[in-house]
Sequence to fold (416 residues):
Amino acid sequence: MKALARTAGLDYTKNQESPKMKNKQSLRLHQAQRQQAFSPARSRFVETLTKNRQELAVELRSLIAANPFLHTVSDEVLFAQAQSEFDLRADLLNQLHTGRWRFRLDVAEYIIEALDDHGFYDPAQPAPGFQPEEIAAALRGVQQLEPFGIGCRDSLDYIRRQLGLRNERMALRILDEGAEELSRGQISTLCRKLRLTETELQDQLTVIRSCQLFPCQLGPVENAYVQADVRLTLEDGEFSITPLSPQVLLDIPAGPLSPQLKQYLKEAQLTLDLIDQRNLTMQLVFQCLVRRQRDYLLQDAPLAVCRLKEVAEETGLHLSTVSRACAHKYYEFNGRIRPFSDLLCKALHQISRDRIEAQLKRWIAEEDPAVPLDDEQLALRFQNEGVVLSRRRIADVRKRLNISNSYQRKNMKKEL
Fold:
């Protein structure tokens, strides 16, 4: 055996790369993805990209145990820390109130509160006081919020939306026209019905299985330790990015191989190719996030407007690929581990939510202690600057910043 032929996990440095280098990386990634289009390998890539570092490590342990050509080196837990609590329902309400919509916001608020623990909503459930057309319009709006798939009816509806986004027409047709045959295990009947070979059908079923079952977790979860997927460091004023994937080595044997060993070797090489593509995709996306949020990272300035769509346009990647590269991924910087999503920020009249929070804190810091500003007055100030926020939304932002209401602030000043 010839050891250490390849190592999974690339070491990318110098975030501030030239456009030429960035284009080369994008071209390499797109070529690899194009070669995998509509194939089981493409589905494997999507599945690998979706996994964070811990989930990838679990899968690799199983692969290494079964494959004689793969082995690992020590993968330490770097800067492990308890995962911070994240109120996704509050984030959905925040997205709702930082945009312009043509539906009733109170109906959308009701839908968000009625979502189950997996982010699903059943339109058949009673909604007293609201008309069906109002529910339908608000539901369409809620389904535009992030994460993708929020507000779907159930897992099957969510899978259909994923397949639609990926333009997997045959997989959708199988779900729509072959559900009965699939439930009964009538594979031959389904093949004749759709005029597919069994191999083609199995390939499409692999595509369907690659879809996620739930868009999110709204219910309480146990605290878990997280590991960074990339490390961000600052050297001489420039950022460096290092993916922290589990380190896996490939041993290439000398001499002829049996057909079975050739298959093991092919699978091992594919595994490392997929990890390389995952790392490159994450690096391209995270580079874009760091470029856009440089002032936030270096100077603690408010977040700049940065949405998934803009990251997709800048990197040349598909929106769903960018979403998977960000979902449940973490970066380590200055000894802290934070999710990629912390660097995303929606716009409100071209103003980021972070800047709204900064403006609110500034106004309250400068207010007359004897006559503090109430939420209605703060909403009016925002309105005078062209930013329409309700009194309730102001109260939500203020509470998130741990700022007391005007009555409490006035009493606190009296006590001092």
Observations:
- Confidence is low (pLDDT under 50) at residues 1-22, 34-38, 75-85, 220-224.
- The first strand starts at residue 2 and ends at 8.
- Residues 259-292 form the longest helix (34 residues).
- Residues 349-415 form a domain with the Arc Repressor Mutant, subunit A fold (CATH 1.10.10).
